[in-house]
Design goal:
- The structure is a homotetramer.
- By secondary structure, chain A is of the alpha/beta class.
- Chain A has 2 domains: 129 residues, NAD(P)-binding Rossmann-like Domain (Rossmann fold), CATH 3.40.50; 199 residues, Dihydrodipicolinate Reductase, domain 2 (2-Layer Sandwich), CATH 3.30.360.10.
- Chain A has 10 helices and 17 strands.
- In chain A, the strands form 3 sheets. The first copy, chain A, has a 9-stranded mixed sheet. In chain A, strands 3-2-1-4-5-6 form a 6-stranded parallel sheet, sandwiched between helices. Chain A has a two-stranded antiparallel sheet with strand order 9-10.
- Chains A and B meet through strand 7, strand 8, strand 11 and strand 12 of A and strand 7, strand 8, strand 11 and strand 12 of B.
């Protein structure tokens, strides 16, 4: 069995989530590769060493290029801030290594297009961390939709809102910078756009509206210095899918009471289905002819769930979605995967987000395919 | 105390709802008028006579013009099919009588404009039956919004969907005819547009999309003859309110599982509030600083509720919303009311719906005020 | 058609609820009697006269015995405080008149037994106001149970809790007096016991526990004088039904957050069904073989609902349950009814409540049928 | 730092859950010990070897006694069928090793008492797998209760029901045998009893009722041979806590629609709090003075949650509760823990369950402390 050395860049929230996932995946699944936690990179050598020990990585590098060059590393996982995705992924592709990059793919459509072309040229497996798609109950929803159980799809109404920026005293951060892919649309909305594509398919045209509600924020927590804010606090859009379905979209980080409300409702001629990431183990479904909505709890009839528990109602957590994402990635690397969320797909998500930006700025319907790199 | 004779036209669902409301209102409230159920009109003399007896009306007419001319009638309530609203209301206004007309005001923007001008000229009280506004818990929501409890309003996301046309075998009816104000937008959506205006205020601009999913339907139940359908099964829109708030709107009568899902969520800088007409005695509210959404049940601290029950959690029903609407009407007739949903306001709702139609047809943002009668 | 004159005693909350119901019933139903609102009694002549006028009663009496003796009165409706139910009902029965008495039937088991015997001797129709049973969706639940749709009934778990006495500063009232049928068990719990009997059938044996949490309360609102409280704030019980089903029961008026939470869940070999009076237009049902609970909204397929609305999801309110109760009463008076909640049934409810009191006091299982009048 | 070698017996559902937890715990926490996955035992040598490799254990034994004797093993984790808990734990204690045993502690009260005495004599750390207590939001509930935020506790109403035995064709298994601690009370209910003790405290007295609904089941799936069933399908009880609170308890494995419905509601003089294991990341809370119930989502202000995610609403899964349990165990082994669910506490749970059995059989209230080993 092929040996696969993992090189992980970054030790923050997402770094640890990746580390947990790579550790768990071999206990949860029979793997098609011989997985090695080869190397970890963090600019701070001490932190790198500590995390490597705690998480079971063989080596720690303080220079990420050294990790990429490390011959024990066959797959590079990138969990650094958004603006570093581009140089790291390009270097890894240049080194002919598989790349697993956190979302968003890049901080501009131009970067994303470059990365996609480089990935095509390199011919390696790439994946981008749209982990919510790996929820087994989402996979079931997708199969229902693709298999016709909901009939012709009429509409997809989606919303992703949280409240972590609702307080006007919440300070400026890189999430407020366009150059770092900040804003509610990029930070939250892109997850929902990826989900819409995953479940329904291509979006052809969009019309949109954005607003910045809090035009300035403290430069830092508690600071009296104010920084001007130009990114969107709230964006909404109408969507036209290639298959004829229509959709509404909204994304906000100002909505009190929501913590992770990636939610949608899909209406088809044979049923209605809804989901809320805040209750990630549930679907709500009403089939034609039934009296009302039925609550469906995830259980071991879903393969991804069965990998973790033989009993329904026991519930998976966020980190297990990440483990399922890693499993899909490893299957792909072993040549046993299916089409996944690779750089091509992540570029399509970025292009859709860019089209929404253009539509909002120019106050008109925009054909998604016409949006090119300079669109941002 | 002034005597007020009620003349009711129509004995269908809405006719009976009006009759129940006029009967209940004097038991629930101290009225500023001496209410008389003077006359009922139905084209079928036998049905008219039976309903008049059962519902307590003094006289029955088979010709509605006779009811309008009846000197015992001071207020004309119109519950007939939509295309009859115009001639009946115009006749009542010409006779100088107050008019209480079911929604929609008319079947064209042109008619609605005429009716509004006639009402202004007549100088009488007019009301249109957007009864969902008369829910005491909606009144509370409005006071919260108007009083600043939610802070600056960021968004209004509303949906009105039902499933009564979801079955493609559901036959053609007048609701499928543009000439009778058919379609999901006019039939359902107008309630939601009226609610959006009631709670948030004027809408300045809209962008929209409509679709007809079932392009033909049986000419009658079980018939093999098919009629082509051109009205919308589903319409969605983006809204820009005059106060800067943004909104999404959707309306569908094809959505399995919903029976009366007029729902909305309002996001403000100080809180989030949501409502669903299928649970009309509840609000869901998260104030800034609270951990999550709180469920609020209607109770007797709300004046309209106290008129019916001294105990919270006992719940009002649809017919009591109608009774509250009638009470507001009677207060207005007695000169003790506030601004209500009169013909001017109903015209504004029609203009907004017309703007959505134009925006969908012409695939562009439309300024609502620019839409004139020929817009339809 | 027989003329039926109604005499209503009491003008409080329940008096008005009765008045509204008697007014509504003829608009909602074709009645088998010619209903007349003959007389109203209130000890305060002015209030009696005002209410009679507002509610449409022909006459007002300040002496309730005069109302009972009034030859225009054929049915006596009793809505006075609990301790007056006995003398009023006994007088009405002595006069050979039908009696519609609010719950509880009486303030002691001894009284209740006397009233039952007097009703049997008089041979008139009697009804007691357990109005929650007249909810159309409860009638559907009952038919499901009786028709075997849930299979063999395994358990009935019921709870009726509110929070109106949760504040220790809530003052003493007659509801705190055993001699007035006070306490959480009598005031709230008896509704739930009546519901358990209505849906499942006779209870054979009970075991129970009661507690008084707030042993004294202000003598009046804001008073510094304290009165000792001996009735139960909270009572819980185990139930054994004659058909083999088991049950848990609890009743509290100290439970923060609940306003009218008469709720139950019934488990059968073919399904689980649950209900909450705070959402009175809904059932939650999971049939064997289904994935999860389905929400069922009341609609016009339920006859009692159709009397008020032709559209599902529009919802009935509390007062309409009362109207349905009055309709059932009038059908019974006309000889067209079925077995209803008459004095015999209300006595059975009282006996069951008394058995729970004995079981709690004596800390043992009690056979319900062995509890006789001195049991309290 | 002390080295701690883990020996895990069993490779079924619970074996894997333990393995995942031991693997995850060092990535999620800074540990006070140097954790080694020393040995795995499974009677089937091939399965043992495979699982050891996949899960990262150094050695595999086919004889569990060898694992206990292995000097590299300092802590023995027991995940075998219930009837093996006793011999394995006794052997591990005899060897002076810490023991982490799955629930129930034993299959008889006599065994449990022996195990408790042996643990006391050995002076080692013991833990029993009542993992639901390790939910961070449950820890918060406990702190609220213990800290007085809910005031004086009035009631604890708990239910644990599932539907995995609801189908009468579900075959006999060891879960149907009293000698293997089968039945709804032992299998499910004991989790709820442990939770009641964890949150509220000692139970002094109980009254109870049990029923076997399906008196026989197929001997195996699809078999026409029938085996008689004597254990309980459904048990309910009244509880009296030492602190004066009262409670209802029920447990069923026949309740259609439920998958893991360990749920409870706690009423206190200052608030009501409820929880459902099927939505393990949520509490529902109504504080005195608030209008209604608030939904609280788990987030990183809860230490156990923060170990896995820095963002609220992302949700923990069942396996992470197990990891938290293992963390608490490791802290205890390192002498840094607090009182946990050791053999003494697990014995108290068993005694409480035994008291419920006695109360049901003898149809009387039973003082829990009087129940000794022969009680079963």
């Amino acid at each position: 069995m092929r040996e696969l050395g993992i090189g992980l860049i970054g030790t923050g929230f997402m770094g640890r989530a990746h580390a947990l996932a790579f550790r768990n995946v071999s206990a949860a699944f029979e793997l098609p590769v011989n997985l090695r936690l080869a190397a970890l990179a963090d600019a701070d050598p001490q932190r790198g060493a500590e995390c490597a020990r705690a998480w079971g990585f063989t080596t720690a590098h303080s220079d990420w290029q050294r990790l990429i060059d490390d011959p024990a590393v066959h797959l590079v996982a990138i969990t650094t801030p958004n603006h570093l995705h581009f140089p790291m992924a390009m270097a890894a592709l240049a080194a002919g290594k598989a790349v697993y990059c956190e979302k968003p793919l890049a901080v501009s459509l131009e970067q994303a297009e470059h990365m996609h072309r480089a990935a095509q040229a390199a011919g390696v497996v790439t994946r981008v961390g749209y982990n919510y798609q790996h929820n087994p109950i989402i996979e079931r929803a997708r199969q229902m939709i693709r298999g016709g159980e909901l009939g012709q799809i009429i509409s997809f109404d989606g919303e992703f809102c949280e409240d972590f920026m609702a307080d006007p005293a919440a300070p400026w951060s890189w999430r407020c910078e366009p150059s770092h892919a900040g804003g509610a649309l990029a930070d939250l909305g892109s997850h929902l756009l990826a989900m819409a594509r995953f479940l329904i398919g291509d979006v052809q045209a969009v019309c949109a509206d954005s607003q910045t509600v809090h035009g300035q924020r403290p430069a830092a927590a508690g600071s009296s210095e104010r920084k001007a804010i130009v990114i969107d606090d709230h964006t909404q859009a109408l969507l036209r899918f290639a298959n004829g379905a229509r959709g509404t979209f909204s994304s906000s980080w100002l909505k009190h009471g929501y913590k992770n409300h990636l939610s949608f409702e899909i209406s088809g001629t044979l049923g209605t289905l809804s989901f809320d990431q805040e209750r990630l183990n549930e679907l709500r479904l009403c089939r034609a002819g039934r009296e009302g909505f039925e609550r469906i709890l995830a259980g071991p009839t879903l393969p991804g769930y069965a990998a973790f528990s033989p009993a329904p109602g026991h519930q998976l957590g966020y980190n297990e979605l990440k483990t399922l994402e890693v499993h899909e990635l490893l299957m792909a690397v072993a040549g046993q995967g299916q089409a996944g969320t690779d750089f091509a797909e992540a570029l399509a998500v970025e292009r859709l987000a860019a089209a929404i930006r253009v539509a909002a700025r120019e106050e008109r319907w925009v054909q998604v395919e016409t949006v090119q790199a300079k669109g941002r």
